[in-house]
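Archive entry: two folds, one per protein. Generate the first.
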Amino acid sequence: MNPDHMPVCKVAAMHVAPVFLDKNATTQKALALIEEAARNGAQLIAFPESFIPAFPVWAGLWAPIHNHDLFARMVAHSLETPGPEIALIAAAARRYQVFISIGISEKNPVSSGGIWNSNLLISDEGRLLSHHRKLMPTFYEKLVWAPGDGAGLQVAATRLGRIGMLICGENTNPLARYALLAQGEQIHIATWPSVWPTKTPGENGNYDNLAANRIRLAAHAFEGKLFGISCAGFMDKAMRDFLVQRDPAVAAILDHTPQAASMFVDPTGAQIGDCLQKEEGIAYCTMDLQQCVEPKQLHDVVGYYNRFDIFDVRVDRSRKKPITWLEDNPPVWPDLGAGDATSGSNS
């Protein structure tokens, strides 16, 4: 990146619904949306949290003893990384020469029922730049996803700038955010579900996705002097009908829980570009990274405006494994000759 000519890029936030709990149909929808955004000039395209195959909102609606079939379906439609669906998305990134951030529910390769809430950043050459698993599922999400690790706390240096991403509640984790800021993050992608109910209608204080997400995105952008992308899912009629047909009592909860918005902020925290909340679509914004420079004069938390002699932050970015084998090579067992029925001794 030439410091005298900072990048200017057009970004797209997909304020869209999945084909609920259908990984194949949702992947095809993602491919069509990528093509549309690329033809409209987008160079960086962001999809919502757990876009493929869906966000498990049912975990906040019913007790877990009533959700076994939904969990099994969620696992069946979660993705392997690498896997065929990711390969299709990577091919689209390469074909249209765009960077893609996409939220998925990811299968654990060594557990038939283990899944993570993950986010992938794919380059314009179709390469995986960052593979982040949500550090800690939030509230009722713990009934669905396992905790991730720090391996994905990475900022990717690209021709568009330094891109980082966090999932939903991680954007309230100051240490996770600082880990990205300390890598020179310039464009931050924050992903969210469409709705996140916490209380029944009539109770005060139901979680306000719209306000909370705007506060967190603006705070991170202001603190880091960077651009922010807030990409939230959308609850379409098919998703609502699926849940209400299962239990009509949840209609009031879904209808009175604030829907999240997809929006953008500049390095001062001010909202810029498009904003979508109550309609499905693609939000666009142009970002000039030169605007990240001047605010650093005033306040630079990863530069001069800190006390590294007082604060010592350490981050473990190793990928956690369920087991470590200590032998140099796996054992090779002898052939028992089971195929030869006449072998052996009768003595």
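Generate the second and append.
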Amino acid sequence: MSHTAHIPSHRKPRRNASKTALRAGVAGGVLSTIAVAGAAGPAQAEPVTQTIEMPTITSGLSTAVAASAQATQQVAQDLQTQAQEDAAAATAAKAAKKAKAEAVRKAEAKKKAEAAAKAKAEAAERASRSTARTTLSATSGSTAGTAASTSSASSSSSSSSATGSAAAIVAFAQAQVGDAYVPGGTGPNSWDCSGLVQAAFRSINVDLPRVSQSQSTVGTQVSLSNLQPGDILYWGSAGSAYHVGIYVGNGQFVGAQNSSTGVVQRPLSYDPPSGAVRVL
């Protein structure tokens, strides 16, 4: 046995190469850091000056301002348009009001003119009949009293000269003498001319047209020299007559003349008719 067999070796064990390299690298890095820090330590750091450019907003602001200006202009235009429309509406309303007032004025003037013309026509009719009565009285001369007596007798006997249906018509017409004349009146206490004639014939169940124009063409045309009680007298032309009455005999007729006289019985000479028709 060798005398050195139990003596441990003083040689250091071999290290792994990769570990050695790693340690060397770390140490080198540490040393480098220390060296840099040492070199930079004593020196004073200079202040750093840097210019930062802010983003420009000029273009966006211009767009916003332009949009605002456009909106303001549009509002102004809208207000101007509305003002013009309001002014036009006010002008139209004023014109319409003026036109309506003018139409009302003209209507009232026309109504007054018609009323005046009607009054004038009635006055002329009364004057004409008054003249006729005056002329008749003058031509009678000294026989006026006798004529009055004859007229009275004729009036009282006129009903007796009619018979049958004609007598009923005459009686109905004479019963209305003194009633009022009203345009469009059909009784029982106020009449117009054709309304009275129609009612008289209706009393014997004979239906006649309502207006004088049509009544002047019913039945048969007869001569004024051949009248009979119950005949219809008309003034104007047949088919366009403006007035009608009923012949009651003995040269007398009954008619609703006008608003001044009402329903009267008068001699034919009071208002000579234009023609006559016979229905019965």
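Annotation attached to the second fold: Residues 73-157 form one domain. The first strand starts at residue 180 and ends at 181.
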